[in-house]
Design goal:
Shape: globular
Number of helices: 10
Radius of gyration: 22 Å
Number of domains: 2
Order of helices and strands: EHEHEEEHEEHHEHHEEHHEEEEEH
Structural class: alpha+beta
Length: about 450
Amino acid sequence: MTSDLLAPLDLAFWNMESDRHPMHLGALGVFGAHSPTAGAHAADLLAARAAAVPGLRMRIRDTWQPLAFGGATREPDPDFDPLNHVRLHAPTADFQAVAGRLMERPLERDRPPWEAHVLPGEDGVSFAVLFKFHHALADGLRALRLAAGVLDPVDVPDRAPRAVEPPRSLLPDVRKLPGLVPGLVRGALSDVGRALDIGASLVRSTLGMRPSSALASAPSGTRRTAGVVVDIDDVHRVRKSVGGTVNDVLIAVVAGALRRWLDERGDGSAGVAPRALIPVSRRRPRTAHPQGNRLSGYLIPLPVDESDPLGRLGAVRAAMVRNKDAGPNRGAGAVALLADHVPALGHRLGGPLVGQAARLWFDILVTSVPLPGLGLRLGGHELTEVYPLAPLAPGQSLAVAISTYRGRVHYGLVADAQAVPDLDRFARAVTAEVETLLVACER
C-alpha cells in the first residue's frame, strides 16, 4: 500500500469537521440471527476480516509538500489494530436509538477513520451493525465497497481487468519544465475560467432562493436516527401513473412528509419551500483520484407548501428536469466543484467557515446511496434492512439518505436530537405520504 494525496473535496470534508458536526456517513444494517450469540460471532468476523481490507488500514495525515502545502495524504497505518475499530455492545431492543448516540461521536482522527459497532438484539433473533466512515475516507460508493470487504463473499460476474495507470510523481521532471510552462499557464487560466463560470452559474441559479427557517436549528451536537421501509412496487406504481423517475417520486415523498410533519407539530407548512441538495456522483473509471469524493449536485426547492400530492410530485419532476438540462457542472449544486480550484492551504484555513456557510447554501440533504441487488450476509446471517445515514451540516436539523435493497426502499433519517425530538413522527409521515400518492394516482 502506498500513500496518496486527498482529493480536494476529501480535504474540504476533513477540514470542515467539528466536534458538534462530525463529517462521517454511516449505514445501519439489520441481520437475522440464528442464535443469541450471532452478534458476538459477527464482531469477531468483522475484526478478523478488516485486517485484510487495504482501504480500512488507511489513516489521514497532514502533508507540507511544496505542491500540496497544507494538504493531507491517505497512508497505511503501521499500528493498525482492527480491535480499535470493531466494538461489540450490550444487547438492545432499539437499534435506532443506539445508532443515534453513536452517530454523534466523531471518529478518532489519529487512526483510520472508520468504525463498526455490533448491536445484538434483545430478542435473540436479530443483530445490527452500524458502519461509520469519514467522508474524507470514502463517499457512499466507496464506503459500500469497504463494508463489502468484511461481509461474506458474494458471487458476482467476472469483469475484464482494467489497466492500472502507474502513479504519477507530484513533482515534474525539472528538465521538462521549460516545455511544460505554456501548458501549465493555459491549464491554470482554464481552471480559473471554469471556476468563475461555476460561480456565476451558482449565483444565477440561487437568485430568488432564500434560506428556510423551518429546518434551521442551533447546533446541539446530539443525534437521533430513524428508518422507514417502503415497497419499491408502490414507488413504481406512482411513477408509471404520472411519469418521471423513481428518484423524483422518492424526493416528492420527502416534500410531502415534511408538509405533514410541520403541520402536525404545529409549525405550519404555508410558504415553506426548503432548498434540498441532491448530490450527483461524478465518479469515472479512470479518475485521477479513484478513492476520492467526486461529487456535484442539484439544488431544488421542495414544494412543501403545495397542498396537492401530485402537484408536489410535478414540481419536483420539473425542478429535476431543469437541473439535468443544465448538467451537474452548472447550477447551485455544482458549488462542490469549486473545491478543485482551492489550494490545499485554503481548505485547511477555510474549512470551518465553509461548514458554517452550508446553512446559507441548502436547508436539507436528500441523497441516494447505491446498493447491490444481491443479498448480503455476515457469518451466514442475512442482511434484511439497511439504512444509509448522512452527516448533518451546521445549522441544519435533518438529513435524508435513501437506498433500495432487494425490492424495498430504505429511508435513513438523521436529525439533531434536540431540534427534532419527534423524528419518529417524521418517519411515520414518510409512510403516510407514499400511501397518499398511491390514493391520488388511483383517482
